Amino acid sequence: MKPIVVLKRIIFAAALIPAAALIYYAVQGDLTANPIEFITHFTGDWAIRFLVITLAVTPIRRITGWNPVIKLRRMLGLFSFFYATLHFLTWFVLDWFFNFRQMAEDVVMRPFITLGMATFVMLLALAVTSTQGSIRRLGRKWTQLHRLIYVAAVTALFHFWLARKTVVPQFQVVLVAAVLLLGFRAWWTLRTRTRTHARTSTAL
Amino acid sequence: MLIRRAPDLRFSDITPKSLYLRRREFLQTAAGAAIGAAAMAVASPLAANVAAQQREGTGHGAKLANVKKSPLSTTGEKLTSWDDITSYNNFYEFGPYKEDPKENAWHLKPRPWTITVEGYAAKKGTFGFDEFIQAYPLEERVYRMRCVEAWSMVIPWVGIPLKDIIATYQPTSQAKYVEFVTAFNPAQMPGQQTRMLPWPYVEGLRMDEAMNPLAILAVGLYEETLPNQDGAPIRLVVPWKYGFKGVKSIAKIRFVDYQPKNTWQVMTPNEYGFYANVNPNVDHPRWSQASERRIGEFFRRKTLPFNGYADQVASLYAGMDPKKLY
Questions:
Q1: Is B318 within a domain?
Q2: 8 A C-beta contact, residue B277 and residue B317
Q3: Which pairs from A9-13 meet CB under 8 Å and 24+ separation?
Q4: In chain A, what residues touch B34 (CB-CB under 8 Å)?
Q5: Residues B121 and B243 in one domain
Q6: What mean pLDDT value characterizes chain A?
Q7: Are residues B47 and B72 in the same domain?
Q8: Which one of B38, B103, B236, B294 is at 20 to 30 Å from B122 when CA atoms are compared?
Q9: Residue B167's Cα: distance from chain center in Å?
């Protein structure tokens, strides 16, 4: 088996550990005094962590030059969507219990809910167009559409920041990671452009 | 008494062995490292829970004798369990997460303890904790506690009416407000080593609010001394206000002529004010205050004006704009 296939399987299993842990806590009755809040934070934390991990794939590929690593990107992105879906359903079912009027009010009135919902809709769009068929059908548009992940990362971070009373350490960790990863991309793009430009100039 | 219990969980019980044996393989990649950190993050709260059970000051306190029931107690409400009251706390001196205080509050030494009374009062000075409380009978007061984060509890506090304590120190006519200050001791309160909030924590009441019969200084709950994470040895309880007004582990009480700048107001002035009266009609800028989740219940319930204590306290705010009372 190729190393990337082995790695992909390991990461797939590992990415399910948080979900398994959540079930384990629930069975143990260890979801704190406020289980709904705990599940909300837990699933939200993992959604944003996987979003950041997904953003790490391309930089890792550039730095190591190991191209097969790109095969992990879709799976990691889908895990972010998986935990984001659990996060959304926690809010929808457990927190508001299908109280549509209150939820609508929340989405319109509360910027952090608006941002969370916007992030979820973007991740949903990315998830449904993540199939080979979509990639073929959309062609160049697919690449453009999937740049939405950068927007989703920013809205997710704002959502996290606004949801808490203070800046919590977990927020600082994902913020620093996201800034480094997005910064790397900006730097890489700039560098590539400059080089191409330099080469063109020389040719002339 | 301290009951030691062998940890019944090991890390090897949590990480599947197949995965754990292949750790070198995947830890070599950055993605693997991230997943490793993830597994640790999942496992650490379990380890922390085990450790917390073995630490003093965060478990059951000493039994309090001669506690009389108060007619001012809230009736007809199911009490929140001792476990929930003592494991789900906002006490940033011990960390930003709700489970942090139970885990970290063993650092605090609530004895010996002194309370300093300052400002516009005839009697001032620094008093040992026992001296500070010994003159007063202890009362049990069952109160609803509504957090600004839209959850609530029902807590059987043991305490002393604040008005009786204030009377002892004979504040002068210049005293318009009472300011309360939490102890500042970064060695015992690890959160104070960070800059999460401006330390020490400060809260305040207008003199007439402080003299209201509902306001108490609590020294216990469930007829036992306060666990550290609930604000040992002495804390403020003002049930018609959001929970953050209930300043914990009080070291200073000042009678002042200015409105104290309470910590959350200093931190985020557009979100928290001085009065912080529970009001379902005035939303927090980021979330609704119309409903709350009672700890232990699934469905939200409607939040009551002044947390259901309007009959006793609404007159304090006659003529004031309720929109300004957040």
A1: yes
A2: yes
A3: A10/B19, A10/B22, A10/B25, A10/B26, A10/B32, A11/A72, A11/A75, A11/A76, A11/B26, A11/B31, A11/B32, A11/B35, A12/A75, A13/B16, A13/B19
A4: 49, 53, 56
A5: yes
A6: 93
A7: no
A8: B236
A9: 25
CA distance A201 to chain B (A): 37
- Please indicate, yes or no, whether residues B116 and B247 belong to a single structural domain of this protein: yes
Q: How many CA atoms lie within 13 A of B159 on its CB side?
A: 31
Residues B313 and B289 reside in one and the same domain: yes
Could you list the residue range(s) of the whole structural domain that residue B23 is in? 11-52
Tell whether B39 and B135 lie within a shared domain.
Answer: no
DSSP state of A95: I
For residue A151, what are its two tokens? Answer: 């927007």
Least confident of B21-25, B253-257, B262-266, B311-315: B21-25
Dig out the tokens for B181 from the structure: 């200050």
CB A81 within 8 A of CB A124: yes
Residue whose C-alpha is closest to residue A110's, from B150, B325, B146: B150
Q: Nearest chain B Cα to A110, which residue?
A: B286
Chain A residues closer than 8 Å to B84 by CB: 33
Q: Which residues of B touch A106 (CB under 8 A)?
A: 288
Sites in chain A below the pLDDT cut of 70:
197-204
**Domain ranges for chain A:** 3-203
Residues B19, B142: one domain? Answer: no
The model's pLDDT over A102-136, given as tens digits with 9 standing for 90+, comes to: 899 999 989 999 999 999 999 999 999 999 999 99
Whether residues B38 and A32 touch (CB distance < 8 A) is answered with no
Provide ipTM, 2 decimals.
0.85
In a domain, B3, yes or no: no
From the list B38, B92, B96, the residue facing A18 with the nearest CB is B38
Nearest residue in chain B measured CA to CA from A94: B298
Query: According to the CATH classification, is domain A3-203 in 1.10.10?
Result: no
- Judging contacts by C-beta atoms under 8 Å, the chain A residues touching residue B283 are 109
Query: Is there a domain that residue B5 lies in?
Result: no
Q: What is the CATH number of the domain that holds B285?
A: 3.90.420.10
Rounded to whole angstroms, the Cα distance separating B298 from B160 reads 33
pTM of the predicted protein model? 0.84
* Number of domains into which chain B is organized: 2
Cβ separation B49–A30 shorter than 8 A: yes
Q: Are residues B122 and B181 in the same domain?
A: yes
